[in-house]
Amino acid sequence: MLTIENLHAEVDGKAILKGIDLDVKAGEIHAIMGPNGSGKSTLSSLIAGNEDYEVTKGEMLLKGKNLAELDAEERAHEGIFLSFQYPVEIPGVSVTNFIKTAINANRKAQGLEDMPASELLKKIREKAKLLDIDSKFLSRSLNEGFSGGEKKRNEIFQMAMLEPSLSILDETDSGLDIDALKIVANGVNKLKSKNNATIVITHYQRLLDYIVPDFVHVLFDGKIVKSGTKELAHELEAKGYDWIKELASHGI
Amino acid sequence: MAYTEEELKKELETKEYEYGFYTDIDSDTFPSGLNKDIVKAISKKKGEPEWMTDWRLKAFESWSEMTEPEWANVNYKKPDLQAISYYSAPKSKPKYDSLDQVDPELLKTFEKLGISIEEQKKLSGVAVDIVMDSVSVATTFKKTLAEKGIIFCSISEAIKEHPELVKKYIGSVIPPKDNYYAGLNSAVFTDGSFCYIPKGVRCPMELSTYFRINQAGTGQFERTLVIADQGSYVSYLEGCTAPSRDENQLHAAVVELIALDDAEIKYSTVQNWFPGDKEGKGGVFNFVTKRGICHERSKISWTQVETGSAVTWKYPSCILKGNNSVGEFYSIAVTNNYQQADTGTKMIHLGKNTRSTIISKGISAGKSQNSYRGLVQVGARAKNARNFSQCDSLLMGNECGAHTFPYIEAKNNSAQIEHEATTSKIGEDQIFYCNQRGIDTEKAIALIVNGFSKEVLNKLPMEFAVEAQKLLEISLEGSVG
User: Fold this and answer.
1) Residue-wise pLDDT tens digits, B118-168
2) Measured between beta carbons, which residues in chain B are less than 8 angstroms from residue A73?
3) Do the beta carbons of residue B246 and residue B282 sit within 8 Å?
4) Which ipTM score applies to this complex?
5) CA of B455: which chain A residue's CA is closest?
6) Is A102 an interface residue toward B (CB < 8 Å)?
7) Among B327, B385, B317, residue whose Cα is nearest residue B351
8) How far is B458 from chain A (nearest CA, A)?
9) Chain B: nearest CA to A232, how far in angstroms?
10) Which residues sit opposite A7 in a β-bridge?
11) A90, B427: Cβ pair inside 8 Å?
12) Which of A4, A213, B234, B423 has an alpha carbon within 20 to 30 A of B302's alpha carbon?
């Protein structure tokens, strides 16, 4: 699905990523953990195509396609979805209108007609139910006045609607109470299939109790310093990030 | 699509006027220039009664002593009024009973505009009175309206057929001496629409007129008069597009609305005249005077979507003369490239318990300047007058400007006046968020702008709202901000 090779990137001339290698296959869930400032969000922004960051070396391939040649919206058309850590507000544009526009934009890219209203409505109802979203919520302006939990739930709702092949959840657990966390995690789990893959980016192990990863990678100072299975997350939780810092300072 | 300031500049230049074409219709045009004889000739050509000729001449006299106003926040080369021809009418002028008889060139023009008469006819409940270069060429639904006693015709026809109504109301809200361009219009107006709704009648359909400027170098001086008699209701739609032209075209229309006791008039405009090219060359000068008077318990609501013209100078206003009367103004003004707009409203509260609402949404892109100018005036006798004003500006890029000039004059202590204003910019993060969901930058801007304008778009009649949304998109095509 996604192959990242020796990825180096910088923002405003400052090196953030210093050689990332990652291989995510269809049907897998990968967790990327790491302390603040380790480059987690930079990595997700880069995969999504945010041009504030510059790739200086290495490459990213999605299903064999070089991402460097695709704009952000083209990457979305190829099936990349980013659940934002801080989703933006778009006043006056309802949740429904936004998702309709997004779905039809993706269909257009695939040479399809707009989704018929009845089909769209059915799909919205189905996915809203999955995430415990009521119809009143769907008519509100996108992210305007949303609580932290509502914002994240809306991100996963969009993910459910767009059915991406690669989803990146950037700190989706931040700002969620335990009930909301369960709903969101349950949604993510239900959407999982052998044809799609998920990258979960998180600071804490907590989310991984609900979204169980196949692989865990620890990012520190722009590099993946340790990879393992879900047990690594528990080890990290127990020993803390100082353990990782120590590992890194000894050159692992 | 990428989003940087450099690319923004480049993309802004790519927008060309979509309706930039010229229809070759045989016209009957006066020599250019303006004097008493021309005024007389216009009146004679139109076969007007003497009282109308005299009214025009009086207007011309007072206008001759006036000077062009300069207080608006716009810069332009004043049009040479002596270089304009004051009369231009399609030569093949008879009224048609069916479309087959209409000049095929004209029909083609409507097709290009995507508003074929055929389509319009089918649109349930829309009567179309098409004003093309000053003379009405086709009217539909007239019979249905006539059954209810509603008069909907060209103003020239009204002058002949209903002189008592025209005589009583023309110039009663906007006297010829009101301002320079209203004075000019009063002297030389060639045609326009007239509408009268009898007592207690609710007009069963939206009344619609499409204005177009078509003849090179002819100013367009439309005159519209809408009278809603006691307890009646009418919704009137006015939409405009114009072909592209190199020299500036002057448009100085006058619209007068009269809402008698308990009447309601809803007047909606979508304006898309040629805004000039990306260098700021050409484009229509739109100097319009629109005003309505509200009698007891009546209501006038202005809704406008202004996307066109090189220079716009327009303040649809309400005189709230009657007690408990209501005035509303909902506006979206979009400026791109070198467009300049100075627009807003005047709410003149004279009666007791009068209420007014102003919602203005200004969107500026390119190197354009967009100003809101509004006056809320509360007279000494206007006890318990209330006004709420909201002016929001949305900026795209770093080279445009948004300005707000609110004037408040309250002479009664019981008045309640509220004014809210916001200015925002379309953010890179908003664009990226949309891009990430597969929405390209152009569509993302359209989405954000439509969201910003929603409160006003919602006020438009259905069939107009769709057109207006499309227009917003066209006007801002390529303007990433």
Assistant:
1) 444 433 334 555 554 444 434 456 667 888 999 988 888 899 999 999 999
2) 1, 434-441
3) yes
4) 0.95
5) A92
6) yes
7) B385
8) 11
9) 31
10) A20
11) no
12) B423
Task: Name the more confident of B4 and A170.
Answer: A170
Best of A11, A47, A88 to disrupt the B interface (most B CBs within 10 Å) is: A88
The string of DSSP letters for A137-182 reads HHTSEETTT--HHHHHHHHHHHHHHH--SEEEEESTTTT--HHHHH
Check pLDDT > 70 for residue B244: no
Token pair 């045009």 in the structure block, residue: B29
A144 CA: distance to closest CA in chain B (Å): 12
Phi, psi of A96, rounded to the nearest 5 degrees: -65, -50
Q: B395: which strand partners?
A: B364, B425
**CB-closest option in A51, A71, A93 to B447:** A93
User: Which contiguous run of DSSP H or E holds residue B60?
Assistant: helix B50-64
Q: Which CATH superfamily is domain A2-249 in?
A: P-loop containing nucleotide triphosphate hydrolases (3.40.50.300)
Helix, strand and coil in chain A, % to nearest 5: 40, 30, 30
Helix/strand/coil for B113: coil
* Rounded-to-integer distance, Cα A251 and Cα A221, Å: 12
Kindly list the residues from chain B whose CB atom is less than 8 angstroms away from the CB atom of residue A77: 438
Touching check for A162 and chain B: CB below 8 Å? Answer: yes
Q: Which residue has the tokens 């109802």?
A: A125
Instruction: For residue range A66-111, list pLDDT tens digits in order.
Output: 999 999 999 999 999 999 999 999 999 999 999 999 999 999 999 9
Whether B445 has its CB under 8 Å from any CB of chain A: the answer is no
Give the helix, strand, coil percentages of chain B, each rounded to 5.
25, 35, 40
User: Cβ contacts of residue B413 below 8 Å, gap of 6+?
Assistant: none
Residues whose CB falls within 8 Å of the CB of residue B24, separated by 6 or more in sequence, listed in order: B105
Closest by Cβ to A105, choosing from B2, B427, B440:
B440
Q: Does B438 contact A105 at a Cβ distance shorter than 8 Å?
A: yes
In this predicted structure, the answer to whether residue B213 has a pLDDT above a threshold of 70 is no
Q: How confident is the model at residue A112 (pLDDT cuts 50, 70, 90)?
A: very high
Per-domain residue ranges for chain A? 2-249
Every domain of chain B and the residues it spans: 5-475
pLDDT digits 0-9 by tens, B324-342: 999 999 999 988 888 888 9
Q: CB of B294 within 8 A of CB of B327?
A: yes
pTM, rounded to two decimals: 0.80
Q: What is the DSSP string of A72-115?
A: HHHHHHTTEEEE-SSPPPEEEEEHHHHHHHHHHHHHHHTTPPPP
Size of interface A-B (CB pairs under 8 A): 78
Q: How many CB atoms lie within 10 A of CB A194?
A: 9
User: Which residues, listed in sequence order, are joined to residue A219 by a DSSP beta bridge?
Assistant: A224
The C-alpha atoms of residue A51 and residue A41 are separated, in whole angstroms, by 13
Interface residue B73 vs chain A (CB under 8 A): no
